[in-house]
Write a structure and sequence with these properties.
- Keywords: Amino-acid biosynthesis, Aromatic amino acid biosynthesis, Oxidoreductase.
- It is a single chain.
- The chain has helices at about 20-30, 50-55, 80-85, 105-115, 135-145, 170-175, 215-225, 235-245, and strands at about 5-15, 35-45, 60-65, 80, 90-95, 100-105, 125-130, 150-155, 160, 175-180, 205-210, 230.
- The chain has about 250 residues and is α/β, with parallel strands linked by helices.
- It folds into 2 domains: about 5-105, Rossmann fold, CATH 3.40.50.10860; about 110-235, Rossmann fold (3-Layer(aba) Sandwich), CATH 3.40.50.720.
- The mean pLDDT is about 95.
Length: about 250
């Protein structure tokens, strides 16, 4: 029995009872008869509790990281992959053979793989709503795809516009609108980013990183104007599969 005891994996985040990852990996372990593999949520109120998890979970082999810890976990890591360093956010952690904790970003890969099939020649520029850790992977993916992007936040700063600046001309110039903020996620499903939805057209892509609910108010409002819509479910599957490969190489 000893060789089937435990390879533990988990998700680091806050208020993550709804999480996709636990269900996905638990089902994967069952379907593939990966005995001894378990996946659990490490739901902590502050990142300062992270070292205790590491100390008290000796069988831990790898972790996913979600909001709001994709950036603030970095100082607790021993190493970063080259891409995670460039992106400035991590969503996958691995314990190396030497016991070091290394951070990776598979968000950018998941987003890129899920967006690519939707792209047409006129999709040249994107607005990224939100400036948190998830937005950084999105920006990196867009750069890899050769798509120019601008961040949107509540306050305008250098290289960032505010929501009040978005108008008909903005929508003419930006054909992809991506919600990388948590606005509209369960349980606050009536919420939506405050943008002028009337300017969406059939030439636009509205992409929401949120997957719960499957169709957010952001996506519903964009779809009503003819936009092509996509939620974050496929992105999550792609990034989770990439994380699994990292943990097992």
């Amino acid at each position: 029995m000893l060789d089937t005891i435990r390879k533990r994996f988990g998700l680091l985040g806050r208020n993550i009872g709804y999480s996709f990852s636990k269900g996905y990996f638990t089902e994967k372990f069952n379907n593939e008869k990966l005995e001894g593999c378990t996946y659990e949520n490490f739901d902590i109120p502050e990142i300062t509790a992270f070292p205790e998890i590491i100390k008290n979970t000796p069988d831990l082999k790898g972790m996913n990281v979600t909001i709001p810890y994709k950036e603030v976990v970095i100082p607790y890591l021993d190493k970063l992959s080259k891409k995670a360093t460039e992106i400035g956010a991590v969503n996958t952690l691995k314990f190396t053979k030497k016991g070091k904790l290394k951070g990776y970003n598979t968000d950018y890969y998941g987003f890129m793989k899920s967006l690519e099939p939707l792209l047409q020649p006129h999709h040249k520029k994107a607005l990224i709503l939100g400036t948190g850790g998830a937005s950084k992977g999105v920006a990196y993916a867009l750069k890899e795809l050769g798509i120019l992007y601008t961040f949107v936040s509540r306050e305008a700063k250098e290289g960032i516009i505010d929501y009040d600046s978005i108008n008909a001309t903005t929508f003419d110039n930006y054909q992809i609108i991506i919600n990388s903020s948590p606005v509209g996620t369960s349980p606050n499903t009536d919420a939506f980013p405050l943008i002028p939805y009337e300017y969406f057209t059939e030439k636009h892509i509205a992409y929401d990183l949120i997957y719960n609910p499957a169709e957010t108010q952001f996506l519903k409002k964009a779809k009503a104007r003819g936009a092509q819509t996509k939620n974050g479910q496929d992105m999550l599957v792609f990034q989770a599969d990439k994380a699994w490969k990292i943990w097992n190489r």
